[in-house]
Design brief:
This protein has about 400 residues and is α/β, with parallel strands linked by helices. The protein contains 14 helices and 15 strands. The chain has 2 domains: about 5-30 and about 295-385, Aspartate Aminotransferase, domain 1 (Alpha-Beta Complex); about 50-275, Type I PLP-dependent aspartate aminotransferase-like (Major domain) (Aspartate Aminotransferase, domain 2). The protein has helices spanning about 5-10, 35-50, 55-75, 90-95, 115-130, 145-155, 175-185, 205-210, 235, 245-250, 275-290, 295-315, 340-350, 375-390, and strands at about 20, 80-85, 105-110, 130-135, 160-165, 190-195, 210-215, 230, 250-255, 260, 320, 330-335, 355, 355-360, 365. The strands form 4 sheets. The protein has a 7-stranded mixed beta sheet, sandwiched between helices. It is globular and about 70 Å long.
Length: about 400
């Protein structure tokens, strides 16, 4: 296919694109029709046949392995290094508690992290007296400035460095390989929040030098909500501790009905999972890798995000917070004279775009996908351009359609 033909095929396979301009994949991406159909088929089976058959349980374990293998292929790991989770936050919690913490230990993160990463760190601080250090830098700081900030924050004796691959606020891609190398020199483990990276940009978790990498299914991988995965480097598995001891985390049910201990990342699978969602996660990643192709995915995300960044940057009175040379699929900006929520409400009504605000920055964030069209970007940017020319009180009224009941 040519790019134009592939784009048309992709857009036809994502029905929600007909409802609005989907610019919030950083929260939840569009669900492929094929994935929704596969999930509905499993739901129908459970409704009509039931969920309690032993053979169905064994089949579910195989489906879980399929989902794990799909994640491994996308982030550059192996099957034995991947555990399914219920979300990025779930994986970050499991990974943070995987260290054998003692009172007075030290961890380092940034002032830009999502609550999913900060939550377990604050819990450790409050319960065990964990010392928590922060790498402080502007959201668009240079790689050298970011690394220098981590250098100061890590110091000597830190045991964990927890950071994002792509900041959820400004969309900046952090120099994770350099941060992980610095952490390794100081004897620290690196945990990466890959929520805004996996499926948006090329990821090779092992090459980054991190020991753990957590991803969601519902964002750039276009899978169901309530699913995610945690990659744990094979050489770190023997050191990592599981906080839980459930039969799914420590053992699998074999054909003889006995439990066998699991030496791999499945020790972090601490509960059961919604079976239609397991299938949906595997199918969505398979759809991305085999039908769409990751080369097309990553190239189009970069092209569309860059196009949107350039168009927005050219508007007077608008400030783009995302660095053009270190971006993934997110673009964050402010419109002078407008509160972010008010501006987003106007844009939604005038352009039929779905986006979000970033409250800590009082800014708007859009997510550009491989399915995004040039026409959609132009339509959205036209709306932004209109708002930038007016104050909230002077904005021309929206067009209305009068329906006469005869």
């Amino acid at each position: 296919m040519t790019d134009a033909e592939k784009l048309a095929a992709v857009r036809a396979a994502l029905p929600s694109l007909a409802a609005a301009i989907q610019l919030n994949t950083g929260s939840v991406g569009p669900l492929p029709a094929e994935v929704a159909a596969a999930m509905a088929e499993i739901e129908a089976y459970e409704r009509d046949v039931g969920r309690a058959q032993y053979e169905y349980f064994v089949d579910t374990l195989q489906r879980m392995d399929e989902a794990r293998a799909a994640v491994a292929a996308v982030i550059g790991g192996d099957l034995d290094e991947v555990a399914l989770t219920h979300a990025t936050t779930d994986g970050l919690n499991l990974a943070t508690w995987a260290l054998d913490w003692r009172a007075g230990d030290r961890a380092v993160t940034t002032t830009h992290e999502h609550a999913g990463a900060l939550g377990p760190l604050y819990a450790l601080r409050d319960r065990l007296g964990l010392e928590l250090g922060f790498a402080e830098f502007e959201g668009g700081a240079s790689d050298d400035e970011i690394v220098a900030s981590f250098d100061r924050a890590i110091g000597e004796g830190a045991r964990l460095v927890s950071c994002s691959h792509v900041l959820w606020t400004t969309g900046t891609v952090l120099p994770v390989a350099r941060i992980a190398a610095l952490a390794r020199e100081r004897g620290a483990i690196t945990l990466v929040d890959g929520a805004q990276a996996a499926g948006a940009i090329p990821v090779a978790a092992r090459d980054l030098g991190a020991q753990m990498y957590s991803v969601p299914a519902q964002k750039w991988l276009l899978g169901p909500e309530g699913m995610g995965a945690l990659w744990v480097a094979r050489e770190f598995l023997s050191q990592a501790r599981s906080t839980f001891n459930s039969f799914l985390s420590w053992a699998s049910y074999d054909a003889r009905g006995s439990y066998e201990p699991q030496p791999d990342a499945r020790r972090f699978q601490v509960s059961n999972f919604h079976r239609p969602s397991i299938v949906g996660m595997a199918r969505s990643i398979g759809w991305l890798t085999m039908f769409v192709g990751l080369e097309f995915v990553h190239r189009r995300v970069a092209e569309m995000a860059g196009r949107a960044h350039d168009a927005l940057s050219a508007i007077d009175g608008l400030t783009v917070l995302t660095p053009r040379d270190r971006m993934a699929g997110l673009v964050t900006f402010r419109i002078g004279g407008w509160e972010a929520k008010a501006a987003l409400d106007e844009l939604a009504a005038r352009t039929f775009a779905i986006a979000r605000t970033v409250p800590p920055l009082e800014a708007i964030r859009i997510s550009l996908g491989f399915w995004t069209s040039e026409a959609e970007i132009e339509r959205f940017v036209d709306g932004v351009r209109l708002l930038a020319r007016h104050a909230p009180g002077s904005l021309p009224p929206r067009r209305t359609l009068t329906i006469v009941d005869r």
